[in-house]
Amino acid sequence: MPRLFVALEVPRNAAMSLSLLRGGLPGARWIDVENFHITLRFIGDIDGRTADEVVDRLDRIERPEFQLALSGIGSFGSKKPHSVFAGVTQAPEMYALQAEIERICQRLGLPADPRKFTPHVTLARLRNARTEDVAHYLTGRGNFYTNTFTVNRFVLMSSKESVGGGPYITEEVFPLYESGGSWDGAELHDHLA
């Protein structure tokens, strides 16, 4: 069974902006542009029945689309950096969506994610990168940002076990409803009246 995770896709124009950050860091294995994403919940290797249950529950989520932008860059692993990433702007709707997905996973018996949710797009995985090289790389690119984009769906993705960063396959797509849409039941009420 492939490894599963729930993610937000990075639109093409934002991915192209991210691609301009590639290079200039010894020991970096850069993520392919088509594999950029924001992980909402890592699920891991699960059996087919559990995967079907996850899909069924995720399909019931009804949340509005929202706006995001990528902003700033950083690294994970302060003493021994292991990856560099682009940050994601704070969006309450994204955090609410992630929290609902986390609750669904735990109700299905999957262990809680031990890490605090830190939305980001991994740009590169690092192997034996020197801390000073990472600091120099980050210093020169700290003012990075993209235009705001609309997130109108989230996806269930899979990855084959490989050495970091893909290839990823979109297994299922879950739409978010248009924020301007009427999902408060008013239309149904008018229809029945």
TrEMBL record:
Active site: H37, H120
Keywords: Hydrolase
InterPro entries per the UniProt record, alphabetical: Cyclic_Pdiesterase, Phosphoesterase_HXTX, RNA_CPDase
GO molecular function annotation: 2',3'-cyclic-nucleotide 3'-phosphodiesterase activity; RNA 2',3'-cyclic 3'-phosphodiesterase activity
Renumbered ranges of motif HXTX 1: 37-40
Motif (HXTX 2): 120-123
Catalytic activity: a 3'-end 2',3'-cyclophospho-ribonucleotide-RNA + H2O = a 3'-end 2'-phospho-ribonucleotide-RNA + H(+)
Residue intervals of the Phosphoesterase HXTX domain: 9-84, 91-166
Signal peptide: none
EC number, UniProt record: 3.1.4.58
Hydrolase among keywords: yes
Domain of life of the organism encoding this protein: Bacteria
Tagged with keyword Phosphoprotein: no
HAMAP family (alphabetical): RNA_CPDase (MF_01940)
Family from the record: Belongs to the 2H phosphoesterase superfamily. ThpR family.
Functional summary from the UniProt entry: Hydrolyzes RNA 2',3'-cyclic phosphodiester to an RNA 2'-phosphomonoester.
Protein name: RNA 2',3'-cyclic phosphodiesterase
Gene this chain is encoded by: thpR
